[in-house]
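pasting for the record
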Amino acid sequence: MLPDPDLLYPMPDHPRVVHLRPLAKGLENVSIGPFAYYDDPNGAEDFFLRNLLHHHAFLGDCLEIGAFTAIATGAKIVMNGANHDMLGFSTYPFDAMPAWRGELDLERYRSQSRGDTTIGPDVWIGAEAWILPGVTIGAGAIIAARAVVSQDVAPYTIVAGNPARPVRQRFEAETIARLLEIAWWDWPVDKIQTNVDTIRKADLAALERVK
């Protein structure tokens, strides 16, 4: 039997782990790759309520999480709705308060947007890390626990700290380029399953032969 990316609980005896794609069905401006998961002992099913913050469809910013990305407990993804208007004399969110609300100037808000947030495939995001609006995290990157990511992260790079800074690249530049070319996460599920041992090992030539 092939693995099912739309099965909510990939580990039935371990319900703290949930696939994110089935949870995202019906959400606007959200794209989740197969087998991306979130791990939390307390209501992992509420990821898009508790861990995706300030994502308002009317602002138009999109969230993309790539295939086989692993997100640890308490990690937060902050979208552009968290940003307050900084073009006027006050940053108070008058438009969000019913008693103060006037005409919503969408173009004013969108002009201050930092853009879409893209988390690539096979990324590992550590516990209680924060991903700020508009960043792109490349394939195979690792985000350390409690890191605050405010800038783009290159593929296969480990970052840590607040603000997050590169610690090191996981592999040499040539190896990274070859891994991105292979892009095993885009293979059909049956091909991945057949070659999972090769994917887990560090034998690049063997992986290229499979491709």
